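Why do we bother with holo predictions? Because pocket geometry can differ from the apo form. Keep that in mind while you read this record for inosinic acid.
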Amino acid sequence: MTPTNLEMLYTTQQIEQRVMELGKQIEADYKDQPLVVVGVLKGSFLFMADLVRAIKHPLRCDFLRVSSYDHDVSTGVVRMDFDLTQSIENDNVLLIEDIVDTGKTLGFLKEHLHGKKPKSLKVCSMLYKDIGVDNRHLVDYVGFEIPNHYVVGYGLDSEGLYRSLPYIGYFPK
Ligand code: IMP
Ligand code: MG
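The structure, written out:
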C-alpha cells in the first residue's frame, strides 16, 4: 500500500526497464570475465537481486554493511559493521550501492576495497542524488539521477521502514 503523502518518483515498471538496461551494459563491458558483485547492505538488497539476474554472466555475490545515518541524517562518520567473507584479490569487483548522496560512504568503501587488491573496481548505484557536489566521477553506472529529495522504497528506508515498497518515492517537504 502506498503511504499517504508519498510522491511517486520511479514506478516498478520504470525500475525494471532501467535495471535490464544496466544489466546489458555491464554484460557488454565485462564480456565473459568473471565478476564479484558486492552489495552494500541493507539498502542495495532489492536492486542487487534484480541486477544480478539481468547479468547473464558468471558471477559471485558477497555483501558488506556500513552505517553512517542516524534518524535519516548523515553523521559523516562511516562505520564498517561487517566486511566481505571472501578474498577479492585479483578479481573484477562491481560494488552495488543504493544511493550516492554526499559520497562519503562510497569514498570510504572504495578506499577500503582498493586495499584488498582487486584486479578492477567499478561502482553501480541505483540512484545518484544531485546535491550540488560533483561526485559523479565516483560512480561508473547510475540507474537514475535524482533531485535532492529524501527517497524511500525499493530497498531504501526511512528509520527502517519502506524498504519493501516495489517503487521509489519521496515525501514532499
Ligand atoms: P552518503 O554517504 O551521504 O553518500 O550516503 C549514502 C548512504 O546514505 C546511502 O547508502 C543510503 O543508505 C543513505 N541515504 C542517503 N540518502 C538517502 C535517501 O534519500 N533515502 C534513503 N537513504 C539514503
Ligand atoms: Mg546505503
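The chain has three helices and nine strands.
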